[in-house]
């Protein structure tokens, strides 16, 4: 990436559009408004609370990221999106059951004023859901044009200077790259012919990228991870990022696994199981949607532990992931992990984890950060895959021929070094004691 000049403070409103206005999106929207009202703190958001060290430690320059980088202000964000249910954000948030009613009632008029646009949806791709607030069209291409019209009208109606799209909808069935995905020409032909290997998420991505709008994929769907849409992003100079927000159990894996490898502690097996009762849990109760999620979750350890380089420690570890739909739990997911590890002289040990997390509470600040960083990237002229944002994803997109970086701490260093680079500051390389952080 090339920086021709330092970024300046953006002018005008930033429209953040979310395909899917369920638990994650409504928690994000309500949270930002509560923060703007001074009713809450932006806990979990790197853009709002994170700091960045500049120069040598002796210089003691450690500004907040939001003071160092000219990001869009929270006050300038306008919210919108699409959903298969007609509920406004207040109604949808109540049904999602993530936030307490007293939190929502404090900003009720604002939330009631945000209503979803009709979604592009086909139950064939998310078998456990059905909705009535759905667009009709003669082809995927027709539906893509309707989405483009939505984006144009939203921008005009709300006086937005810029838009960003962040996918917050459900996990689609597992789709492998095929001929229709290999070029923009074949993809556009497939859109017009209703090719079954094109899923609704790809239609949203195509609509956004065609208009130069950044797109981030928060689900494990194939979506933009295909040559056709990467070609479109390059052609239109648009940043894209994905995939699958890193929350819950996988977040724990990207924290723990680097520690095991750093200390050269061996791994015989890692068993993971989850229970959750939200819409995501219901969707993942379908084997075809679970397959998509499983591919995302299983790849993490393989890349972090690098068994090819450490065969004595990681060559034969067994990794199993299970997700169980359990309605009483709602959005409060519980993840159990059992690690069978071994140390000096091969002596066995175990680690047990019981993570009682709130899925959407962990995802909401990710949506905020991605929206602000993707907008920054677009203003700087960044295009294509934004690997520096891998920090936020379970299955980070990466340049062809490279392996994805899953280590949370390396990901964070790459993100912060990118911000330093943008502002013309020295990168922190840890070469020499004076640079040790």
Characteristic key phrases:
single chain; 437 residues; Rossmann fold; seven-stranded parallel beta sheet; 16 helices; 11 strands; 39% helix; globular; disordered C terminus
Structure description:
The protein has 437 residues and is an alpha/beta fold. Helix content is 39%, strand content 16%. The protein is built from 16 helices and eleven strands. The strands form two sheets. Strands 3-2-1-4-5-6-11 form a seven-stranded parallel β-sheet, with helices on both faces. Helix 1 packs across helix 15 and helix 7 packs across helix 9. The longest helix is centred in the C-terminal third of the chain and has 22 residues.
Q: What's the short version?
A:
This protein has 437 residues and is an alpha/beta fold.
- CATH topology of the largest domain, by name, is Rossmann fold
Question: Uncertain regions: pLDDT < 50 for 5+ in a row?
Answer: 433-437
What value does the average pLDDT take?
A: 93
Between the first and last Cα atoms, what is the distance in angstroms? 25 Å
Looking at CATH, the homologous superfamily of the largest domain is NAD(P)-binding Rossmann-like Domain
The spatial strand order of the largest sheet comes to 3-2-1-4-5-6-11
Series of H and E elements? EHHHEHHHEHEHHEHEHEHHHEEEHEH
Secondary structure elements and pairings:
Layout (H helix, E strand, L loop, with lengths): L12 E7 L3 H14 L9 H4 L15 H4 L8 E7 L5 H8 L4 H5 L2 H5 L4 E2 L21 H19 L1 E8 L16 H9 L7 H11 L4 E3 L9 H9 L3 E4 L5 H15 L3 E11 L2 H6 L2 H19 L5 H4 L3 E8 L8 E9 L5 E9 L2 H22 L3 E2 L22 H15 L15
Helix pairs in contact: 1-4, 1-15, 7-8, 7-9, 8-10, 11-13
């Amino acid at each position: 990436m090339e920086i021709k000049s330092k970024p300046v403070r953006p002018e005008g409103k930033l429209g953040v559009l979310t395909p899917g206005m369920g638990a994650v999106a409504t928690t994000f929207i309500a949270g930002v408004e509560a923060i703007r009202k001074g009713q809450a703190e932006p806990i979990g958001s790197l853009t709002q609370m994170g700091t960045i060290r500049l120069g040598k430690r002796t210089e003691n320059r450690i500004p907040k990221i939001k003071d160092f980088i000219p990001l869009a202000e929270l006050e300038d964000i306008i919210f919108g999106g699409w959903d298969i249910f007609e509920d406004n954000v207040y109604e949808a948030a109540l049904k999602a059951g993530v936030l307490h009613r007293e939190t929502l009632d404090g900003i009720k008029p604002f939330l009631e004023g945000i209503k979803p646009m009709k979604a592009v949806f086909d139950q064939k791709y998310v078998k456990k859901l059905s909705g009535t607030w759905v667009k009709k069209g003669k082809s995927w291409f027709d539906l893509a044009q309707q989405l483009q019209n939505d984006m144009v009208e939203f921008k005009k109606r709300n006086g937005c200077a810029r838009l960003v799209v962040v996918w917050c909808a459900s996990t689609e069935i597992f789709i492998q790259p095929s001929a229709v995905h290999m070029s923009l020409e074949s993809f556009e032909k497939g859109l017009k012919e209703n090719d079954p290997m094109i899923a609704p998420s790809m239609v949203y991505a195509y609509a956004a990228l065609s208009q130069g709008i950044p797109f981030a994929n928060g689900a494990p769907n194939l979506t933009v991870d295909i040559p056709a849409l990467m070609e479109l992003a390059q052609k239109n100079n648009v940043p894209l990022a994905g995939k699958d927000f890193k929350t819950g159990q996988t977040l724990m894996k990207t924290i723990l696994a680097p520690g095991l490898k750093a200390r050269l502690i061996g791994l015989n097996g890692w068993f993971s199981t989850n229970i959750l009762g939200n819409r995501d849990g219901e969707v993942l109760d379908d084997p075809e949607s679970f397959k998509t999620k499983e591919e995302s979750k299983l790849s993490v350890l393989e890349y972090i532990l690098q068994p090819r380089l450490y065969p004595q420690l990681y060559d034969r570890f067994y990794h199993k992931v299970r997700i169980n739909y359990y309605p009483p739990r709602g959005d409060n997911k519980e993840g159990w992990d059992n690690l069978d590890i071994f140390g000096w002289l091969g002596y066995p040990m175990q680690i047990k984890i019981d993570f009682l997390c709130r899925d959407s509470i962990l995802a909401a600040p990710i949506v905020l950060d991605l929206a602000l960083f993707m907008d920054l990237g677009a203003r700087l002229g960044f295009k294509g895959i934004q690997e520096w944002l891998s920090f936020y994803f379970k299955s980070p997109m990466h340049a062809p021929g490279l392996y994805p970086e899953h280590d949370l701490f390396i990901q964070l260093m790459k993100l912060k070094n990118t911000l330093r680079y943008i502002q013309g500051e020295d990168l922190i390389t840890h070469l020499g004691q004076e640079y040790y952080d």
